[in-house]
Every structure is written in structure tokens, then in C-alpha cells.
From TrEMBL:
This is 4Fe-4S ferredoxin iron-sulfur binding domain protein. The keyword Iron-sulfur applies. Keywords: 4Fe-4S, Electron transport, Iron, Iron-sulfur, Metal-binding, Repeat, Transport. The keyword Repeat applies. One of its GO terms (molecular function) is metal ion binding. PROSITE patterns: 4FE4S_FER_1, 4FE4S_FER_2. It comes from Acidaminococcus fermentans (strain ATCC 25085 / DSM 20731 / CCUG 9996 / CIP 106432 / VR4). InterPro entries: 4Fe4S_Fe-S-bd, 4Fe4S_Fe_S_CS, EFR1-like, Fe-S_Ferredoxin, Flavoprotein-like_sf.
Amino acid sequence: MIYYFSTTGNSLALARELGEALDDKIISITRTSGTVLEGPAIGLVFPVYYGDVPANVAEFVRSHDFPEGSYIYALATCGSSWGRTFRTLQNLLQAQGCRLSWSRAVPLIANSTICGRSHIGYDLHKLNKEPEVVKEAVEAIRNRKENHSLETGSLMASLFDNPIGHAIGDWYMRIQVDPDRCKKCGECVRLCPVENIHLGEKYAVMGDHCLHCLACLHGCPHQAITVRGRVVLKEDQYRHPGVTAKELER
């Protein structure tokens, strides 16, 4: 079984291709029921946040039981650096009495670029490497290969792993609802993986446990989600071209 987390489609597209190649099932961690995971081989596919494992993926690992002797592998999509993602994941799995056997970082398109500038012009050619990555992963998984070379530290992750770093990250990725643009369509509510958004009387309202996944920012059809007060251009919103908005809803 392949368990994935995806908000703008990169990890879902990769998990789907991998599942088809391995003839294995895929399921979103936001739709997983029960506490015992399935399969002699268990895959985890997710994006890198702040050079580390996303908080909800870490909680998923902590709250589930992995069958004894399972071959566990992971693919992490990222913009350029995977930071300490796989070291963190290895520590999380070891605390569960198992271990990470094989890992691969997959640099694709970073959805956080939108926080820094406008008129981005995403290079979709980066997605052409997906078949090559899937081929490499399939060979490793079928032959139960081991790879621990990516379980390193990360300066970026260390910088953010403290109150000051969190404050800087919260400021840089500060997203809010523009009341004048919001049409109460509810798409942001459906896309938020941690149920941090609800529809208020006049417009969508955000809670206080944002994951900074930017699903709402990229997915709002009315560009009503702002970053640090800046309205995002429709042309700067990103979703993997092979994935629909419906597939990303919680």
C-alpha cells in the first residue's frame, strides 16, 4: 500500500504512477481509516516542508502501527532540498519499532515560490523526470534495496526548528482571506488537509493551526487567499497538470 499526502498534486501524481507500476493501491493519509497499515511493502509519498517532514505526516506515522518486518520506503517531493526529512522519518519509524529501508528525494516544482514573488512561470518540464524516478523506485522496491544516504541533517530545518524560526516562517507564509474577493464557494474548506478553514457568515475564516501547505492559496478559484496581504495572480497558482482539484480535496 502507498500512503500519500498532496495539496497541489506533485506527490499524488508520483504516488499514482508508482502504484500503477507496482500494481499497488494508493490512499491519501487524510482518508485513511483504522490504525494498522497494510502491506509487506509500505510506501510514503509526501512533500518537504521547511526542510522536514510535514507535521501531519509525522503525526500519521506516530499514530499508526506498521506490520512487523514491513519494507518501508519513502519518496519526498521538493523544490530543491530535502533537508533532514529522511532522518526525521527514520527516527519516527524507529520509535514505532520499524525502520525506513529506502528513500528518494524528488525535486519538482515548489509551490512555496508564490510566497516570494509574482509572475513565476513554472517550469513544467521538471515534471518530465517522474517516469525515471518511478522506474528507479520500482526496481528498488521489488528488489528490497536499501538506501540510507539521504538521512542527513539540514541547516534550513534547524533554523526553523525554534520559536524565532517558526515566527519567521509564519510571517513569510502568512495567508489570509480577502473578504472582498471571497465568494464563500467552500473550495478552500474542502482542500485544507487539517480542517483549519470554515465558512463564516460572510466569508471563509481561518483557524490557528495552519500547516502552511498552501492548498487554499493555489486552489482558490477567486484568488481570495492572500500571502502577506498580496493578492495572488491566477497565473501564479499551481496544480500538477495531471491532477484535478477534486482529487486533492480532503
